[in-house]
């Protein structure tokens, strides 16, 4: 929203945590509904039943939050109005995300659980291949003594950067 030209203030920094809380609640509701489905049924029917049970709950909470923050946009205090605007848009995006991306990711996860030998996404490396690749990268490219981490550590060890304690605290 800031990139679209809307002003920014410090109270809007609380908004991501609020959105994470609302999104986490939606995730728990969807996963709980998915666990209650009959695993003998086809995956499409399981997802349909999951969204049939979880969809109204997620929709009601999201619409309620969007409406309440939408009404909050009308307050005369600019900081509160801006916070409500950012949060209203965030809750709407989170709602769309839950119904599209998260449910799609849940389908892939269920496919992986149902058939562990055949991954739902082709050409994914197996776990051993990932570990082997990480170990082989370490042997080919050892830690660079002139790399960015080493330079950062040298800067932190400089006396100008270190926190100096008053003399009374050094003697304890």
Instruction: Compute the separation of the termini in Å.
Output: 51 Å
- Which segments are poorly predicted (pLDDT under 50) over 5 or more consecutive residues? 132-141
The largest sheet is: none
Helix content: 55-70%
Label the overall shape.
flat
State the main characteristics.
172 residues; mainly alpha; 6 helices; 0% strand
Account of the protein in words:
With 172 residues, this protein is mainly alpha-helical. It contains 6 helices and no strands. The termini are far apart. Residues 132-141 have low confidence and may be disordered. Helix 1 (15-35) packs antiparallel against helix 2 (43-72), helix 1 runs parallel beside helix 3 and helix 2 packs antiparallel against helix 3. The chain has a domain at 2-114.
List the helices and strands and how they pair.
Layout: H1 15-35, H2 43-72, H3 78-114, H4 127-140, H5 148-157, H6 167-170
Domain SSD: 1-108
Subcellular location: Membrane
Transmembrane segments: 12-33, 80-108
